[in-house]
Design brief:
This protein is α+β, with helices and mostly antiparallel strands and 822 residues long. Helices cover 50% and strands 10% of the residues. The protein is built from 33 helices and 20 strands. Helix 7 packs across helix 9 (221-245) and helix 9 (221-245) packs antiparallel against helix 32 (774-799).
Length: 822
């Protein structure tokens, strides 16, 4: 292979990188001056996160909304009547009845809750009425057309029936309303934070309570992790408060919210028993919170589910065209796809320089420049995504022998990879999995009939596979471009053109958002300019894993900008053909599956990839695929790491990320001890009393993982969040904020003469055991709000021109900043 230097070359689509960057204010003088003027470097980057949480309601079948709503539904009653008339097979009814009766631990994922409306405070009821409007921006509008499903009469009184996602918001509003003597400042702050609890897709979603500046003075990624911890703790307190205040606990409804990446096993099994329409009725969120026109958003979620389900069925034809399915013997996928019930974390970075330039017409930096730069940054960063998968976040999952039908296990990959890479991945995956009959050397895949596949699995000890991050395989992560409409060629409107092409092919709907693992956040739509990382599944720890992940994401984004500014990277270096796009993304998906190798054309037109492969150890010509190189995943990750250390050495020093890079080195060198994939797996296995996931049945392991996330990991995340709360109450941000009259009055009202730190320490055990009183819950909710506002105030001062920490002089300079620029 020949080394290919990356130097700018004209492509006729934009000004030269130097001219574009000069409009952005990037200097071309001394190296340290250029570093300080780059986007996402030093004090430029801001960060926010969005978390999708899993919700469950535990209790007997007679007490919980989900089984009740199924049994009371016309759908269920019609099945019973049709079965009596002999119009449907016995299995249609028995499977659903078996699902209802077979819940041994009485855990009902994504169930709604019911409670008397009289339990709401006046303010809580006012918030409810506003959220029931057809258009919240128009107070005179009528109620939503579906309001009746939230309001019902039970045992002679008015009751509410709402999803857990909305319960969180309503509980926070109620907590502010029930405190008659609470200062107006506190109530206003609490109601503002209530808007950060969203109803979307299936699971509860929360997004950052304030934007975090990625600065050394504020703790960089640690500050991002701490904000996530605050939000997680507030969610736990609200659930416990609702359990007491709304009478959920006494009525037999125990609500939990926690971080878990996969759609629940039992929800998948229910999906196989019912129609797609009934599934949407049960699980598509009504979007009561977060959207002015909730019904409109609810219809959009129905559309997303319909499109995903249709794509799943259409993938059969694509697999046949790819030569992966060679006969008409297939397992028909369900007409309902459950992938929208997965849960991940999105980390968004914003650039003050990009945002300010786009807000100022005099800068000459336009939306066209933003698009050119953004698409090129995305293509570059995608090469580094294998460093994140399994390393910082993961979704370990056990697949049984019977799961290895390509039409099931390959999921959405036929829409994300070209046929060549799809065939390569399928062949290598079958080789990795335990599908071979010992002694005969014959590798089998399942035939279809469950009884036959089960018999084969038992007879020949065919165990299937164990995957590091199955969420990234079982979900539509990235839409592949068409030949006529590349998604990332730097031209405005390219993604709209791609969606139109895909709609004509029956793959997508133009009204849906473009799916990408790293997505541009455009100024005209978001009010800021930056990028959103959508490839994170589950973090084992917030400070230990989320914090360095956010820092590494910022570093590789800044590195991409630096290469572009230096004229060393243009769109011409990373071509926009579907084959080139698929070539780099297959590495990402292979890492999620846990494949040991991948294959790249020896003469690939992706010059950036060729440059990295030039420094990758162990690369050799493939014997199976002439003209291709065989590359090991561990060696490629090591080459990516070396490239970062070599090309971003000054960025690492300037941004103070030496420890982050060293931590990455340790994770790559000792994945069995430091990677999130291995740590989560050990946690699940320790509770099962098993040492190897392949020695457990797939369903048993996956159910054990759900239990581990629901109980053990949830408590660990709570402990970590509690540590953050204790640190905040004795930190300088909190003490500094007491100089504000409104803040001080709210703190005095909350603590009523108590020592805040000692009070919180005394309640840790009670909260972890879910035994704290309603009064203590209210005080703790207030304290979290106060610590959030304290951090928010300091963050705003840091990002303002006059915001300085102690030690900064009037120019904003400080010893820390000077050391970073040396």
């Amino acid at each position: 292979m020949i080394a290919v230097p990356l130097r700018g070359r004209a492509d006729g689509r934009s000004p030269s990188p130097a001219e574009m960057m000069s409009r952005l204010g990037v200097t071309s003088g001394r190296e340290e001056h250029q570093l300080s003027s780059l986007p996402f470097v030093l004090d430029d980057a801001t960060c926010g996160t969005e978390n999708e949480l899993q919700a469950v309601v535990s209790g007997s079948r007679e007490k919980i909304d989900l089984p009740r709503i199924i049994e009371e539904s016309n759908y269920f009653q019609n099945i019973i009547k049709r079965r009596r008339r002999g119009e449907v097979p016995k299995r249609v009814l028995s499977d659903l009845e078996g699902w209802l009766a077979g819940n041994r631990d009485n855990t009902w994922e994504n169930s709604w809750v019911r409670f008397p409306r009289r339990r709401l405070s006046v303010l809580g009821d006012k918030v409810l009425e506003r959220d029931l409007l057809a258009d919240k921006a128009c107070p005179e509008s009528d109620r939503r057309g579906d309001a009746d499903q939230f309001l019902l009469r039970e045992e002679g009184e008015d009751c509410l029936r709402i999803p857990v996602s909305y319960l969180l918001k309503l509980a926070l509003a109620d907590a502010m309303g029930v405190q008659d003597r609470a200062p107006a400042w506190l109530k206003e702050a609490g109601l503002k934070l209530a808007g950060h609890f969203l109803s979307d897709n299936t699971s509860p979603e929360t997004y950052s309570l304030h934007v975090v500046p990625l600065r050394m003075e504020s703790g960089q990624g640690r500050a991002v992790a701490d904000e996530s911890a605050q939000r997680f703790l507030l969610s736990q307190l609200l659930v416990q408060y609702a359990g007491t205040r709304f009478g959920l606990t006494e009525s037999g409804q125990r609500v939990l919210v926690y971080m878990a990446p996969h759609p629940p096993i039992r929800q998948k099994e229910l999906n196989d028993c019912i129609t797609d329409s009934f599934y949407r009725e049960l699980f598509m969120n009504p979007c009561l919170s977060g959207w002015d026109k909730g019904e409109e958003k609810h219809r959009y979620m129905h559309l997303c589910h319909q499109v995903m389900s249709r794509a799943q069925l259409n993938s059969l034809a694509r697999l046949k065209e790819a030569g992966i399915i060679n006969s008409n013997l297939v397992v028909m996928p369900s007409t309902s796809n459950i992938s929208l019930a997965n849960n991940g974390v999105h980390i968004s970075l914003g650039s003050r320089k990009l945002t300010e330039a786009l807000a100022d017409p005099a800068s000459g930096f336009t939306a066209g420049h933003e698009k050119y730069l953004g698409d090129l940054v995305i293509k570059t960063v995608e090469h580094f995504l294998p460093l994140f998968v399994g390393t910082y976040s993961a979704a370990p999952y056990r697949l049984d022998f019977a799961d290895f039908h390509p039409e099931k296990v390959l999921s959405f990959l036929p829409y994300q990879l070209d046929y060549t890479h799809l065939r390569m991945i399928w062949r290598r995956w079958k080789k990795k999995a335990d599908l071979k009959i010992k002694g005969l050397g014959l590798r089998l895949t399942p035939f279809g009939p469950p009884w036959l596949d089960s018999a084969l699995s038992r007879a020949f000890a065919l165990r299937g596979d164990f995957v590091p991050d199955f969420r990234l395989i079982d979900y539509l992560v990235a839409l592949m471009s068409t030949d006529q409409s590349p998604a990332l060629d730097g031209r405005e409107g390219n993604q709209q053109r791609l969606k139109k092409d895909l709609a004509e092919l029956g793959v997508f709907d133009p009204s849906m958002s473009t799916y990408l693992p790293y997505r541009q956040r455009e100024f005209s739509k978001m009010g800021f300019s930056g990028f959103e990382g959508r490839y994170y599944s589950l973090f084992a720890g917030l400070r230990r894993d989320l914090a360095p992940a956010a820092e590494l994401q910022c570093l590789v984004t800044a590195l991409a900008c630096r290469l572009i500014a230096a004229g060393r990277l243009t769109h011409g270096h990373i071509p926009d053909s579907p084959e080139t796009e698929s070539e780099r993304r297959q590495i990402f998906f292979g890492a999620a599956i846990g494949l040991p190798t991948f294959f790249v054309k020896a003469d690939t037109g992706n010059l950036f990839l060729r440059l990295i492969l030039e420094k990758t150890g162990g690369v050799r010509a493939s014997r199976r695929y002439p003209g291709y190189l065989r590359v090991g995943h561990p060696e490629f990750r090591a080459a990516l790491f070396d490239y970062i250390c070599r090309e971003a050495a000054d960025l690492i020093e300037a941004m103070g990320l030496e420890r982050t890079v060293q931590d990455l080195r340790w994770r790559l060198e000792r994945p069995e001890h430091r990677s999130v994939h291995e740590r989560l797996t050990r946690g699940v296995l320790s509770e099962m009393g098993v040492k190897d996931p392949l020695k457990a049945q797939a369903r048993d392991f996956n159910l054990a993982a759900e239990s581990y996330y629901r109980e053990t990991l949830r408590r660990q995340h709570m402990e970590e969040a509690w540590d953050v709360l204790e640190e905040d109450l004795s930190g300088r941000e909190f003490l500094y904020s007491l100089s504000n009259a409104g803040f001080r009055e709210a703190a005095e009202h909350t603590l009523d003469g108590r020592n805040g730190l000692e009070y919180v320490q005394s309640l840790r055990g009670l909260v972890l055991r879910e035994e704290a009183s309603e009064e203590d819950m209210l005080r703790l909710i207030n304290l979290v709000i106060l610590t959030v506002k304290a951090r928010e105030r300091r963050a705003e001062e840091l990002t303002s021109q006059n915001g300085r920490y102690e030690g900064e002089d009037e120019t904003g300079d400080s010893p820390v900043r000077r050391a970073a620029l040396r």
